[in-house]
Histidine ammonia-lyase (Collibacillus ludicampi), 507 residues
Amino acid sequence: MIILDGSTLTVEDVTQVACEGKRVGISHEALKRVTQCRARVEQIIQNHETIYGVTTGFGKFADVLIPANEVETLQANLIRSHACAVGEELPPDVVRAMMVLRANALAKGYSGITVETLSMLIECLNQDILPVIPAQGSLGASGDLALLSHLALLLMGEGKAVWKGKKMPAAEALRQAGLKPIRLQAKEGLALINGTQAMTAIGVLTFARAERLVKMADVIAAMTLEVLRGIPEAFDEAVQDVRPYPEQAAVAANLRDLLYGSKLTTRQGEVRVQDAYSLRCIPQVHGAIRQVLTYVGEKLAIEMNAATDNPLIFADSNKVISGGNFHGQPIAFAMDFLKIGMSELANISERRLERIVNAQLSGGLPPFLSRRPGVESGMMIAQYVAASIVSENKVLCHPSSVDSIPSSANQEDHVSMGTNAARHAANVVENVARVLAIELIGACEAAEHRGSDRLAPATRVLYDAVRENVQPLIQDRSITGDIEYVASQLKEGVWLRRVEKVVPLIC
C-alpha cells in the first residue's frame, strides 16, 4: 500500500496505482492536518467571514456573498455546472492517476476538505470505481476545473462511472460497491476541483513511458549501428569528456556496453571513415533528450506534492489566502518541452530507418530489405509510415503554453493551456513508440541479412525478444500488427527489463 502524506509521492508510486492497481491510504499526520484545516473552515462559516469560494461565488462571482443556508448548495452547483468536459474519455490509468494525485494534494491539509470526503475519494480509488471523464475542456488555470468536476460528481453519486468493466450511473456503481454518496459541505467542491491534477496525471504517465522509450532507443540505435556496419569509436569516452554533458556521456557509455562483443561493427577507415550524423551523433541527440527528461521530472516531482487549489487555508497561522497555485504554467512549459524532446527522438530514429532500407546508404543490404526486390516491396511503405508519424509530431509540437484565452468575464485573463500540452505530449510519445518500433523491426530484418548471430550479446537479447512474436519478412505481408505489438512492448518496458539483465543502462 502507498501511504499518502502530501509530500513524498513519486512517479513510480503514481504509475503503480494507475497501471497496477496498488492501493493507497492516508498517513496519520496527514489526517491530523486535514482535520485541523477543516476546523478553520467551520470557524469561517460561524463567524460569517468573507472568504472566496466558501461564502462567496466563484470566478467573476467572487464579489457575490452567499447566505449561510446556501453554502452547501453552492458547492453542489459548482460541481454540476463545471462538469461539462467533452471529447474522448480519459483512459482508466489517467483517471486513477488523477484520483491519487488529488487525494495527495488534499492530504497536505491546506484545502479545507473533510476527512469523510477525502476517505470517500480514496475508497473509490481502492475499489476501482472510476468516474467517466471527457478529455477536453481545461484551460489549465483555476485548475483543471471541468475534468476534475467529473471526478467530483462520482463522490456525489452523479454522472457516470465504470466499475468492474461496466459503465453505469455513478449512483448505481456506488450502491453496488456498498458506498453512499457524500453531501458536499462548505469549500469542499472547490477543494476537489481547483488543482492541476488532470495535466499532472497525464504528464506523469507520459513521462514514465518517455523514460522507458529513451532507454530503449539506445538499444535500438545500437542494433541499427551494427547492421549498418557503424563505427563505435565516435562513442569513445575521450570524445565525451571534452564536451562534458553527463547525459551525453551516459548515452555513449550505454552504447559502448551495448555494442561490446559485436562482430558487425567496424573501425574508422575499414568500411568508411565516419558515419552519418544519425549514427555518429546518437550520444549528443539522445543525451540532449535526457536533459529534457531531467527538467520535466523535476517539475512533476514538485507538482505531484503541491497544494494547487484556492483559497489556501493555513490553520497554524489562521490565514486564508487567495493565491494562484492552480495556474498550470510550470507543467504547461514542461509538457511542451517534453513533446519537443521526444519528437526529436522519433526524428533521428526515422533517419536511421531510412539508412537501413535505402540500398544507396545501407552498405549492401537489399533495397527496402526485400527478399525479391521489385516483385516485393519489403519495408518500403513502413518507412513512409514512420515519416508520416514524424511529420504529425511536428504539428503536435506547436507549444500550447504560448496560448492564452481570457475566461470568466476576463477575471481569469491569463491561462496556461497546460492540459492541452499534456494531452499532445501523450500523443507524441505514442507516436514515438511506433517510429522506434518500425526502426527496430527494420534493424531485426537487416540482421537476418547480416547474420543475427553476429550481433552483440545485449542487442541479441532484444532481437530474440522481437522474434518471439514478430517473424522475419520472408515475403510481403501487412506488418501493422507487428508495429503495434512492438510499440506496446517498448512503451511498457517489457523488453527493457530483459536487456538490462545483460547491460544495466544509465538513464
Notes: The chain has a mean pLDDT of 94. The beta strands are 2-4, 24-26, 86-89, 130-131, 134-136, 160-163, 166-169, 312-314, 319-321. The two ends are 27 Å apart (CA to CA).
